[in-house]
Amino acid sequence: MTTMTPARPGTPAGHAGFGQLLRAEWIKFRTVRGWTIAIVVGALVMVAWGLLVAGGGSTTCQASPTSPVLSGAACVPQFPLGPADEAVTDSFYFVHRPLSAGGSLTVRVTSLTGRYSHGGIAPGPDPEANFSSGVQPWSKAGIIIKASAKPGSAYAAMMITGGHGVRMQYDYTGDIAGPPGTASPASPRWLRLTRSGDTITGYESANGTHWSVAGIVQLTGLPAIAQVGMFAASPDVAKVVSQSLGGGTVTGGPSLATATFDHVSLSGARPGRWSGGIVGGSSGLPASASRFAQAGERFTITGTGDIAPVVAGSDASAIGQYLTGAFAALIAAAVVAVMLITAEYRRGLIRVTLAASPRRGGVLMAKAVVAGAATFVAGLAAAAVVVPLADHLARNKGAYVLPVSGLTELRVIAGTAAVLAVAAVLAVAVGTMLRRSAAAVTTGIMVIVLPYTLGTTGVLPAGAAQWLLRVTPAAAFAIQQSVPAYPQVTASYTPTAGYFPLAPWAGFAVLCGYTAVALAVAWYLLRRRDA
Amino acid sequence: MMRRVISTVPPALSAEWAKLRTLPGTFWLLAAVVATTVAVSTAATAAVSCPHGGCSVDPVKVSLTGIYLGQAVAAVLGVLVVSSEYSTGMIRVTFTALPRRTTVLTAKAAIIGGLALAAGAVAVAGSLLAGGALLTRHGFTPAHGYPALTVGDGPVLRAAAGSVLYLALIALLSLGVATVIRDPAPAIGTVLGLLYLDPIIAAVLHGAHWHKFIDRYAPMTAGLAIQATTNLSSLPISPWAGLGVLAAWAAGALLLGGLVFRLRDA
After folding, report:
1. Which of B61, B206, B220, B230 to mutate to test the interface with A (most CBs of A within 10 A)?
2. What is the pLDDT of residue B231?
3. A392 phi and psi angles, rounded to 5 deg
4. What is residue A87's DSSP assignment?
5. What is the phi/psi pair of residue B222, to 5°?
6. pLDDT < 70: residue spans in chain B
7. CA-to-CA distance for A508 and A24, rounded, in angstroms?
8. Do A457 and B62 touch (CB under 8 A)?
């Protein structure tokens, strides 16, 4: 009589624990040198890619046409930081008076008009020589209560916009929509702001007698004496030229908005005169372009600039773009993860593996864990190295990197590693289903990399490309979005700039959903089919 | 009679053809090239519309969007024709029967190029037929400045014929890469990385010169310039020159493949 000798004393044959399965799979992975090399090379390409993105561009700048040309770190734009430490644009024309802890300002806006440049500022005495008439959608004018005239200070404002109706905006990122329509002499618009301590209430009215509340906001750090007044601002002409997702470019030049106010009534301020001045810069236009005139009760204010958060684009970068090299690491990980299972089928090793551990689901899980863990560690190391290095390099090259909280940075770095890990698990599942390496690797790359590539090449219309990044596993790269998109700022919100159609964790969940389904199908097929 | 056949068709060619013809996978891959190309092209044309005169899409290019996906299947075809021989050990039989390795690679290239051309022709014709029908319904009418798609039209013919050639060149490039790398998984990973990653890095790199450089010399972005029929002046590289760049990539990969084919043990 022959007896089977168990692999380990005390362990019944065929009932290896999951720990042993893991150990077996780990040894198989570790001892194929090419696989380790592929994972490491993928991580290195990811780092090199990020550094190339950060260091590939060189910025030169000039304060004025006659001043010396600067380059590198001297060109980093200086954006003020808002109350929540986010980068903001805070430049506008402000006609203001001091306001005590309790008071209110009411005005009637009778017109909002604008002028804008097509291709920049004309040389010569009249910089507005080639300007056209027209108001920008986010040109804004109205009344504002602001902690001080210092850029970046807390504020709340009621405003008329060029194309988005009446709004109440506060602290740069806050935006409450009011009724649509703009202001004209035939249908003027009444606005009111009241301050009670730190609480600001905005009202709007069509006739000055019947008022409705637009919003109530709490401003932190509002001093006892704040500034209150009227303002006008108009952002640069933003025109997304191409309708593709990635090929979208924004061109334009400065613009000006002019608003007329009357029926100005102010309470809570000491008697005095209104004083006007530019807050922040004047976006390339000479200071004389912004001005205010008072004729009796009538104020005419012309301003340029914007009061809004800075978004990623040509002036500022989001950290996510230093991690786009994750696609290269993903391809390497997919190749290795697929081979973890297909190489066994090719060499017939799968029959030995399944004879040693007949619980086939356990084998699949062990392979998934090994592929996921190895990819996660390599991806985490690469992401953790490349983000701070690229950030530093980009600043030295003159780029502005949008500041994000430590938690967000952690989510972007660890999230990228997690996306790579889950993608590797998906590749193991697809490899188990298809059993052919070439078909499995191609499927993996087609569902995760190709949708993003199609979005960047601009062959698809923007809407279709956005949908691809919602419904395919490529949605997971939303985890790399570090700064929110703001509807009140016109920009090209593309994946390559760092903006995705889904929220970070929602996008990640899409990939996890596909992976769970693929694992279930793989598990079913592995159990059912002969090896 | 038998002798005559053997003397007119080179034995390497008939051997490669027999190997490929008798594999069931070959037919399915060729069918997949056609199916994926036509399906994605149709989906893309269904997604675009031109309600008023101001649409900026190139109707021919959109009708051929499926090439982006179909080329991956063509790449699989190109990779498998050589790497499957390595994984089964068949390559040693092949080399015993036909010791001139350059001839073997040339025969493989001829067969795979021909098959890709045939599948590509069907795929492109199907895509243009579907695209033509759908685009007219979506506002791409002569009234909006878009004449109906006819293959006889110069730029349309160039885009169509060029896309067929593109698929064949991708298959040849893949054959070359697979000859160097041998193992199917890393070979297809390398080819698809080369194709799909270039537009991504071009889009995130700062500075127009980088962007232009990659668009001009990367195999996919340069090769697909052949599909453009509108706005030709804004192309990074002219259509035929772009296809030439891809041909250079394919030739380079095949040359390198031929070199290691001769020098390495099977």
Report:
1. B206
2. 74
3. -65, -45
4. B
5. -70, -45
6. 1-9, 49-56, 139, 141-152, 207-208
7. 30
8. no
Choose the mutation target among B196, B205, B227 for the interface with A, i.e. most A CBs under 10 Å: B196
Q: For the domain bounded by A88-309, which CATH number is listed?
A: 2.60.120
pLDDT exceeds cutoff 60 at A353: yes
DSSP A58-94: --EE-SSTTSPPEEGGGG---PPB-TTS-BEEE-EEE
Q: How far apart are CA A333 and CA A408, in angstroms?
A: 25
| Residues A96-152: tens digit of each pLDDT | 999 988 899 999 999 999 988 866 566 566 667 678 888 888 999 999 999 998 999
pLDDT tens, residue by residue, A361-410: 889 999 999 999 999 999 999 999 999 999 999 888 888 888 888 999 99
> Measuring CA to CA, which residue among B131, B63, B145, B134 is closest to residue A460?
B63
Mean pLDDT of A82-100: 90
Residues belonging to chain A: 531
Q: CB A242 to CB B56 under 8 A? A: yes
A&B contacts, CB < 8 Å: 125
B198-230 per-position pLDDT tens digit? 988 888 887 667 788 888 899 999 999 998 887
Domain borders along chain A are 30-55+316-528, 88-309
Give the number of other Cβ atoms within 10 Å of residue A20's Cβ.
17
Rg (CA), chain B: 20
pTM recorded for the entire structure: 0.88
Q: How far is A450 from chain B (nearest CA, A)?
A: 7
Spell out which residues of chain B touch residue A49, defining contact as CB-CB under 8 Å: 201
One-letter amino acid of B78 = G
Dihedral over Cα of A391, A469, B229, B231: its sign: negative
- With an 8 Å Cβ cutoff, is B232 touching chain A? no
Q: Which two tokens stand for residue A190?
A: 């009444």
The highest-confidence range among A309-318, A435-444, A492-501, by mean pLDDT, is A435-444
- DSSP readout, B83-142? HHHHHHTHHHHHHHH---HHHHHHHHHHHHHHHHHHHHHHHHHHHHHHHHHHHHHTT-SG
Residue A496 has its nearest CB partner, among B56, B183, B203, at: B203
Query: Are B189 and A331 within 8 A, CB to CB?
Result: yes
φ, ψ for residue A307 (rounded to 5)? -120, 95
Facing residue for A442 by CB, picked from B72, B183, B200: B72
Please count the other Cβ atoms lying within 10 Å of the Cβ belonging to residue B42: 20
Q: How far apart are CA A349 and CA A341, in angstroms?
A: 10
pLDDT of A134: 86
Residue of A nearest to B210 (CA): A56
Residue type at position A76: V
> According to the model, what pLDDT value does residue A283 have?
64
Strands A88-90, A307-309: pairing is antiparallel
Q: Which of A89, A469, A3 is nearest to A306 (CA)?
A: A89
Contacts of B184 in chain A (CB under 8 A): 436-438, 441
Rounded to 10 deg, the angle between the A33-55 and A18-31 helix axes is 70
CA distance B45 to B37: 12
Cα A236-A241-A246 angle, rounded to 5 deg: 110
Compute the distance between CA of residue A280 and CA of residue A115 in angstroms, rounded to an integer.
Answer: 20
The one-letter amino acid code at A8 reads R
The interface residues of chain B toward chain A in range 183-202, judged by CB-CB distance below 8 A, are 183-189, 192-193, 196-197, 199-202
Residues of A in contact with B206 (CB under 8 A): 53, 56-57, 399
Q: Which of B188, B198, B227 to mutate against chain A (most A CBs within 10 Å)?
A: B188
* Alpha helices, DSSP H, located in A137-248: none
CA dist B248 and A39 (Å) reads: 30
What H or E segment, with its residue span, contains residue A255?
strand A255-267
pLDDT number for residue A208: 87
